[in-house]
Design goal:
Strand order of the largest sheet: 3-2-1-4-5-6-7
GO molecular function: oxidoreductase activity
Helix content: 40-55%
Order of helices and strands: HEHEHEHEHEHEHHHEH
Bound molecules: nicotinamide-adenine-dinucleotide
InterPro entries: NAD(P)-bd_dom_sf (IPR036291), Sc_DH/Rdtase_CS (IPR020904), SDR_fam (IPR002347)
Distance between the termini: 59 Å
Keywords: Lipid metabolism, NAD, Oxidoreductase
Structural class: alpha/beta
Number of strands: 7
Radius of gyration: 21 Å
Protein name: Zerumbone synthase
Largest sheet: 7 strands, parallel
Pfam family, one: adh_short_C2
């Protein structure tokens, strides 16, 4: 009112208008997002952040128990679908569910991933675990993109995200099979960006440093069964480099929010590292 009729007597106090103008912007208002591996860790944090920013979120996870618990906690804007990303039919159905339930899919976040047991050398490579990791971390991502593109291309818009890792930026930081899978995720994003951008679809990935989610802590428990869980969390946190801050799932979720939103409307084919600077200046010491 004050803007349109400059001399109008204000209906409310100045502080009320200020309060309105500083209300946090909801960057994903009315957007629909599907998040694989959304029942835990980074995916769960992304679901929370997306919903807080006005999105409807479908959590697609193999873990039914945690998936159902998560949507109960997140409220009416979250839905759970059982999805094993190694099964194309599960991913296809999850995408179709988004379209039938919410009429559209705006954001596809291919986040589900697993670690790999650590053999001491390439000579001990176990092909069964190699295939399993590739099936989830690489093939699952590729199939996720395929089905997201299937429904996004006709609308001429969409944002696709994937979770890679700093171990896909610098070799030799983690078990080789896992590292290879994350190099592949970054490669997928870079190689598909040119095709998808012709349809108005952006594709980007995020590479976090170590975060003590169940994913990492289960691994740590196996490597150091004699250590207390607090000590293990401390070890994981020590990989971090930024003084006074630990990397949290919410840090990755905020990066995902940026890439998913129109704030990143000209960002495509990018790998956004969330590592406190680790890959910029620590790599030589590692
Ligand atoms: P997490 O274990 O907390 O969550 C992973 C989720 O993926 C779980 O809910 C699990 O049930 C689900 N999942 C596993 N296999 C699946 C399948 N076949 N189909 C569907 N869902 C499946 O782990 P997180 O740390 O949140 O990991 C999420 C992603 O982040 C992974 O891709 C991981 O590689 C990546 N990442 C994690 C870290 C870290 O330090 N935690 C660092 C860099 C990258």
């Amino acid at each position: 009112l004050r803007k349109n009729i400059p001399y109008a007597r204000p209906l409310f106090t100045e502080s009320f208008y200020r309060l309105l103008s500083t209300r946090p912007e909801r960057k994903l208002q009315d957007k629909v997002a599907l998040i694989t591996g959304g029942a835990s860790g980074i995916g769960r944090a992304a679901a929370t952040t997306f919903i807080n920013n006005g999105a409807k979120v479908i959590i697609a996870d193999i873990d039914q128990q945690h998936g159902r618990e998560t949507v109960k906690e997140l409220g009416p804007n979250a839905t759970f679908v059982t999805c094993d990303v190694t099964k194309e039919s599960d991913i296809s159905s999850a995408v179709d569910f988004a379209v039938s339930e919410y009429k559209q899919l705006d954001i596809m976040y291919n986040n589900a991933g697993i670690p790999c047991k650590t053999p001491p050398s390439i000579v001990d490579l176990d092909l069964e675990s190699f295939d399993k990791v590739m099936d989830i971390n690489v093939r699952g991502v590729m199939v996720g993109i395929k089905h997201a593109a299937r429904v996004m291309i006709p609308r001429g818009t969409g944002s696709i995200l994937c979770t890679a890792s700093v171990t896909g930026v610098i070799g030799g930081m983690a078990q080789h099979t896992y590292s290879v899978s994350k190099f592949a995720v970054i490669g997928i994003v870079k190689s598909l960006a040119s095709e998808l951008c012709r349809h108005g679809i952006r594709i980007n990935c995020i590479s976090p440093i170590a975060i003590p989610t169940p994913f990492v802590m289960n691994e740590m428990n196996q490597i150091y069964p004699h250590l207390e869980s607090e000590r293990l969390v401390e070890i994981v946190r020590n990989v971090g480099v930024l003084k006074g801050a630990n990397c949290e799932p919410s840090d990755v979720a905020n990066a995902a929010l940026y890439l998913a939103s129109d704030d990143a409307r000209y960002v495509n084919g990018h790998n956004l590292v969330v590592d406190g600077g680790f890959t910029s200046f620590k790599s030589l010491e590692f």
